[in-house]
Amino acid sequence: LVVAHVFDHLCLTTSTSAAYMGTRAILPLLALLEVGLAFGGLSGDQGWHAVPLFRKPAVSTGQLELVEEGLNVLRAQTEPFAIVSAVGPTRTGKSSILGRAFFRGEHENIFEVGSGVTSHTGGVWIASQPVEVKVADGSTLRVLFIDTEGFSGVGGITSKTYEANLFGLVYLLSSVVIFNTMFPVDASTVASLNAHASHALSMLQALTDSGQLVQKAKPRLVWSIQSFNIYNLHNSGMAATDLLAALRNASRASGAGIAVLGGEAASSSTWLVERLFEQQELVTVRRPHASDEVVANLAKYNSTILSADYLHDADQVRAAAMHDLKAVHRCKEAGTVLTLSECTPQPLVGTDFVAQVSLWLKHGYILDRSDLELDTADEAETLNRLRERNRKWFDEQCATLNEELRTKFYWYREESADNAKLRDEAVAAVDKMMKGFHGAALSRLVESGVFWKFPGKGAMLVEAQADQAMQRCKETLDGTRRHMEGWTASHRATKATPAQELFEKLEAEAPKPSGGLSYKLVAEDSSCFSNAGGAGDIHRLHLGNGMTLEACAEAVSKKCECGRGFEHDKGNDGYCGCGMAGTPNTDCTESDDDFSYGSARYIMFNPACLNQQSEARKRALEQANAAAGGEDGGGALAAAVVKDYDAPKKRRQVCFDVYD
């Protein structure tokens, strides 16, 4: 309406040529209006939000449970509707790509987006209302969107059986399945997708065996690969279709498909995914933003600041999903998952579809055999193996929580009321997840073969181990919390103590005669990283790995290109590095806010290299003076720096005033 009004005004008040030029100027606005209409006219008064459709039971058996709130969304559909679902590994951006591709704008975070390393979405969630889209024949079709819990997530109670049933049900529900993974992809990614397809096949077989034929057309598959480096594709002279063909050839069909899908699954060169989905399309999605902080906290940022390439690729995901979209239906013809050409679809309304979903859930339950640890060893060996597996699992979970806590404390390190609240919330969150160790471990036990062989002893063992693991983990998390609470204060104190002061103390305490080696710990959780002016880590010298602290110090003392500062990281394969002499990083202090957990930073008094270090500083000062365009005073300052180290201490302080 706005465009029409402006156009009418131009025609009434300007010449024909001016009106024509005005119309050309309005064309971009028309394009934006068309995009807005294509996104279903999402407005602030629509109240879009996500509601649970399936959840996990309190004691995990891999069997999903229906949630009335989500079923009511389906029941409310009295006209034909389609379902688009996103599945895939955890922390790959499923929720984000759904929001940015289909709800961009006010509702682009309709599905909550995680910001840590743990799984965020749990169960299966559905949009509270459909989006209306135009389909190929010009008619309008309502579309509901589904977001799912990621596979192989940390911090959640999952199993291969649970993931098998989740993928199978989503396959049956959907008109289009978006399988979301991260770059790079290889044969293992294809094998994972094929394994999930085999789960859908197993569910189809279970339903067939129980007399519940799935009379529907095959859904379409859109494979979205996030954080894709498009230059890798260009360098290989390939398009996305070529990559999909190459990945398809990396997989071979399973003979298990023959019984359900018939002869078309019998070819030894057939990709099982190809026989379960009507079409497959691969869409490459580039990185949303150059900043890691933005990518890790995507829900905080609206689409206007994201990469244009990412938004373009999100549009491509949308276009691929909307292409030839079909409503949920039942085929008139008998048979299991037919092709579109074989199916005469009869669209289903919400109540009929809910009844169908309930039958699929009841009769389609499958068990992933890898969850059944068929151990033929004796009782003692079986329980010992269970104990060892549990110990490793508990340690992995605690390490993940510890990293999460450390990361959040670093993000919210500045002193403010809001940051203090966020730190308290982070402590509460990891504490809550740690207290879930009991339930998670017992759920894992129930889905293992050990439980069915030794239920009593297995449960007692898990309970005892969970108590011990929680105590160990609590001590670890408390130590991390105390360390991080003190880190900001110690970091400020370190910055407040000039490196020159520490150096002078070392010089006074150095072994005699000259030539001895003396170094002092300056800071923990700090390195020699420089990132000079955003140009990268160019003022740090890498001296090697696999070193002890003593060996690292010895290597630094023999390399006069090093300045006075060096770092040693015992936990990172004994990494050793130093700041470059003659640069602002000579004392490893160029990065004011550096945080490197486990790395220790030192300053060294090394008489053997004093002259060369002085020359390096002289060159740096001369370059600085030249860049400033002045020589008055600068030459005197440079000359003062290269005097013998027995000269008055004032010239050292001048040098470091410049660097600070």
Description:
The protein is of the alpha+beta class and 660 residues long. The chain contains 23 helices and 16 strands. The protein has helices spanning 2-13, 16-38, 68-75, 94-102, 160-173, 187-209, 230-235, 240-249, 257-261, 272-276, 292-296, 308-322, 350-363, 379-411, 417-435, 437-446, 449-453, 455-496, 499-509, 549-557, 610-628, 634-641, 650-659, and strands spanning 50-55, 65-66, 81-87, 124-127, 131-134, 140-148, 176-182, 220-226, 280-284, 329-331, 345-347, 518-524, 540-544, 562-569, 575-580, 599-605. Strands 1, 2, 3, 4, 5, 6, 7, 8 and 9 form a nine-stranded mixed beta sheet that branches. Strands 12-16-14-15-13 form a five-stranded antiparallel beta sheet, sandwiched between helices. A two-stranded antiparallel ribbon has the order 10-11. Helix 6 (187-209) links the parallel strand 7 (176-182) and strand 8 (220-226). Helix 4 packs across helix 12. The longest helix is centred in the C-terminal third of the chain and has 42 residues, at 455-496. It is globular, with a radius of gyration of 32 Å. Mean pLDDT is 76; it is low at 1-45, 114-118, 252-270 and 630-660.
Overall mean pLDDT stands at 76
- Tell me the overall shape: globular
Distance between the termini: 60 Å
List how many beta strands DSSP finds: 16
Spans of at least 5 consecutive residues with low confidence: 1-45, 114-118, 252-270, 630-660
Structural class computed from helices and strand pairing = alpha+beta
User: What percentage of residues falls in helices of 4 or more residues?
Assistant: 40-55%
**How many whole angstroms does the radius of gyration measure?**
32 Å
**What is the strand content?**
5-15%
Q: State the oligomer.
A: single chain
Please tally the helical runs, counting DSSP H or I stretches of 4 or more residues.
Answer: 23
* Major sheet size, sense and barrel closure: 9 strands, mixed
